[in-house]
Amino acid sequence: MESTPFNKYAMAFLATVFVVMTAGILSDSIFDSHAPEKPGFIIEAAEASGEAEAGGAPATEAVPIATLLASADATRGEAIFKRCAACHTGDKGGANKVGPNLWDIVDRPIATHAGFSYSGAMKDFSKGGQELWTYDHLNHFLTSPKGYIKGTAMGFAGDKKDNERADLIAYLRTLSDSPKPLPAADAAPAGDAAAPADGAAKPAEGTAH
Ligand code: HEC
Predict the structure, then answer these.
(1) Are residues 165 and 181 in contact, defined by beta-carbon separation less than 8 angstroms?
(2) Residue nearest to atom 40 of ligand 1 (CA)
């Protein structure tokens, strides 16, 4: 092939086009490599707000379990217990499944059910079986199992709805030959006890004077 001046110009033109296109492709790939930062950032933000919610949970838990149980309904709780039944039986002498049998769970020493192998986290929390499943412990644990007992093997996300949890705990209470007394709202019995004492003291004072 003869190298004419025209061919030289054509080659130079093509070479220029090649360089420009290459630069374009390279710069595209530079911009592409920046793209993943966006989704990463969004996911981080979503996680952060999730944590904020979890962190905010104790604030909404301000209602004491005694108050919640006062308007709870064990029958509704029985329906909610279906979510637990995949892993737990609730009948007397029932089998351990993924989780331990829950008969007589209220005030049962934590992590002590025969034949079940508990996580180290749950055993630590029980302080060697000294801690009992009080209404209060149940309420916090069922709000957020992993939030309350970090490292527990219970794969249940928790139920943040006060009314549902109260119904559920009211139902758990019935899983017993002699259901434990409902917790009294702390303030009421203290006030009741104080009132008669005062009343008794006053006439005595009166007669003394
Ligand atoms: C995916 C399976 C699973 C589900 C669903 C589940 N649990 Fe559990 N649960 C477990 C496991 C496993 C343990 C033992 C945890 C450990 O050892 O850390 C446990 C432990 C418990 C304990 C402590 C028992 C003890 O003997 O100390 C209670 C109380 C409990 N679960 C209640 C419930 C309730 C109520 C529900 C329904 C709202 C529920 N769980 C849903 C698996 C589950």
Answers:
(1) no
(2) 84
Residue owning the nearest CA to atom 28 of ligand 1: 102
Cα separation, 152 vs 146, whole angstroms: 6
The Cβ of residue 79 has, within 10 Å, a number of other Cβ atoms equal to 13
Structure tokens belonging to residue 113: 């059910």
For 118-158, how does the pLDDT look when each residue is reduced to its tens digit (9 = 90+)?
Answer: 999 999 999 999 999 999 999 999 999 999 999 999 999 99
Least confident of 13-17, 47-51, 56-60, 81-85: 47-51
Quote the tokens at residue 197.
């004492």
Which of 187, 91, 104, 113 minimizes the C-alpha distance to 138? 104
Q: Using a 6 Å cutoff on CB, does residue 99 contact ligand 1?
A: yes
Choice between 193 and 80, residue whose per-residue pLDDT is larger: 80
CA atoms within 13 A on the CB side of 41: 5
Ligand 1 lined by 153 (C-beta under 6 Å): yes
Structural Rg of the chain based on CA atoms: 33
Residue 204 clears pLDDT 70, i.e. is over it: no
The average pLDDT across 172-189 equals 85
Structure tokens at 192: 């009741």
Of the residues 156, 159, 165, 169, which should be mutated to test ligand 1's pocket, given the most ligand atoms within 8 Å of the CB? 156
Question: Residue 119: left if φ>0, alpha if ψ -120 to 50, beta else—which one?
Answer: beta
